[in-house]
């Protein structure tokens, strides 16, 4: 596939997740985390339900740019049904990927792997990682509440 065709595919997937985000909304009886990116104004409210150590349901709401919204949509797809440790590992892979570090585990990110190109735009890294930072905070909060 030609490079321009591949770039077009990446842009189409990102645009689709932004315009038609998956798991968009607010969950009742869930762990809630809200984060914002002060540099651009993106805000995400993440709702997560846990079943033991598993993410049993997840949703997000908020106001953000295309990258932020697409990343949140992709993240919710990637983490649903996973254990907290699996999610934390994915968040680490994602964070390194958007900073330009390659990993064999990137394929585990699903559509979120399409955001690897964000590494070329350092000012957009915070947009891309906002939802992933929120899921890490939700897991930390869940663990703290179990004690």
TrEMBL record:
<comment type="similarity">
    <text>Belongs to the NifU family.</text>
</comment>
<dbReference type="Pfam" id="PF01592">
    <property type="entry name" value="NifU_N"/>
</dbReference>
<feature type="domain" description="NIF system FeS cluster assembly NifU N-terminal">
    <location>
        <begin position="10"/>
        <end position="127"/>
    </location>
</feature>
<dbReference type="GO" id="GO:0016226">
    <property type="term" value="P:iron-sulfur cluster assembly"/>
</dbReference>
<protein>
    <submittedName>
        <fullName>SUF system NifU family Fe-S cluster assembly protein</fullName>
    </submittedName>
</protein>
<dbReference type="GO" id="GO:0005506">
    <property type="term" value="F:iron ion binding"/>
</dbReference>
<dbReference type="GO" id="GO:0051536">
    <property type="term" value="F:iron-sulfur cluster binding"/>
</dbReference>
<dbReference type="InterPro" id="IPR002871">
    <property type="entry name" value="NIF_FeS_clus_asmbl_NifU_N"/>
</dbReference>
């Amino acid at each position: 596939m030609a490079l321009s065709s591949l770039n077009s595919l990446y842009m189409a997937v990102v645009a689709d997740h932004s315009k038609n985000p998956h798991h968009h909304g607010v969950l009742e009886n869930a762990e809630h985390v809200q984060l914002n990116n002060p540099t651009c104004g993106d805000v995400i409210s993440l709702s997560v339900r846990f079943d033991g150590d598993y993410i049993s349901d997840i949703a997000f709401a908020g106001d953000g740019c295309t990258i932020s919204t697409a990343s949140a949509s992709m993240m919710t797809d990637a983490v649903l049904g996973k254990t907290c440790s699996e999610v934390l590992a994915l968040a680490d892979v994602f964070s390194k990927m958007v900073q330009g570090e390659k990993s064999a585990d990137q394929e585990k990110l699903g559509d979120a792997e399409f955001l690897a190109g964000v590494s070329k735009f350092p000012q957009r890294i915070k947009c891309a990682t906002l939802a992933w930072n929120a899921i890490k905070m939700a897991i930390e909060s869940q663990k703290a509440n179990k004690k």
